[in-house]
Amino acid sequence: MKKEILKTAFIKSIPILCSYIFVGMAYGLMMNEAGFYWWHTLLISLVIYTGAFQFLLISFLQTGTPLLTICLSALLINSRQLFYSLTFIDDFNRMGKKKWYMIHTLTDETYAVNCTLPSQNKKDIMPWIAFFSRCYWMIGGLLGSFIGNLVPWNLEGIDFCMTALFIIILMDQCKKIENQKIACIGFIVGILCLLLFGTRQFMLPSLILTSFFLLYRSWREI
């Protein structure tokens, strides 16, 4: 049974592998160019483990940004994951002590993949997906740090593989869900918030509005 769980978790995490290895390498290369050593990259990925903020943290560390500013930026950038966690409250509570690891390792990608898991053995598969994904990110960062300036090609735009990952997962979800109205409403809300708040601030308000809509819809159905 454990072998089957490990096999399922690895197969489900392959899209994350394809994304994290290359984006992690880009992060490691940027850390190397900024003058940090490989163990800096490993330590930050181990303790912080949030891709978007880790890229921003490089400039923060270079410019000596105050700790309070760094903490507030981390909170705002990753605030969307507060909404993600609502989906798995019951699943995390059934995991016992593992729930603290699951909370720490919840990312956009693991959330998206976990949403596609069948209910059978879900609570056993999710921790392994989180573990594999974290390993992929750290391995990618280390590869980037070791390769450094030896890479002969231009890595500009490599972070688009994250966007490609979400598009693939979205297409898979759209095929499985019966009610397409919810997906359409989420899409419309996202576009409106993008137009109103811009590319840097649209994520949080769109999540809030969509969550309120889903809560209202659930309340009406009770």
Automatic annotation (TrEMBL):
<dbReference type="GO" id="GO:1903785">
    <property type="term" value="P:L-valine transmembrane transport"/>
</dbReference>
<feature type="transmembrane region" description="Helical">
    <location>
        <begin position="128"/>
        <end position="147"/>
    </location>
</feature>
<keyword id="KW-0813">Transport</keyword>
<dbReference type="InterPro" id="IPR011606">
    <property type="entry name" value="Brnchd-chn_aa_trnsp_permease"/>
</dbReference>
<feature type="transmembrane region" description="Helical">
    <location>
        <begin position="36"/>
        <end position="58"/>
    </location>
</feature>
<comment type="similarity">
    <text>Belongs to the AzlC family.</text>
</comment>
<keyword id="KW-1133">Transmembrane helix</keyword>
<protein>
    <submittedName>
        <fullName>AzlC family ABC transporter permease</fullName>
    </submittedName>
</protein>
<feature type="transmembrane region" description="Helical">
    <location>
        <begin position="9"/>
        <end position="30"/>
    </location>
</feature>
<dbReference type="Pfam" id="PF03591">
    <property type="entry name" value="AzlC"/>
</dbReference>
<keyword id="KW-1003">Cell membrane</keyword>
<feature type="transmembrane region" description="Helical">
    <location>
        <begin position="153"/>
        <end position="170"/>
    </location>
</feature>
<keyword id="KW-0472">Membrane</keyword>
<keyword id="KW-0812">Transmembrane</keyword>
<feature type="transmembrane region" description="Helical">
    <location>
        <begin position="182"/>
        <end position="197"/>
    </location>
</feature>
<dbReference type="GO" id="GO:0005886">
    <property type="term" value="C:plasma membrane"/>
</dbReference>
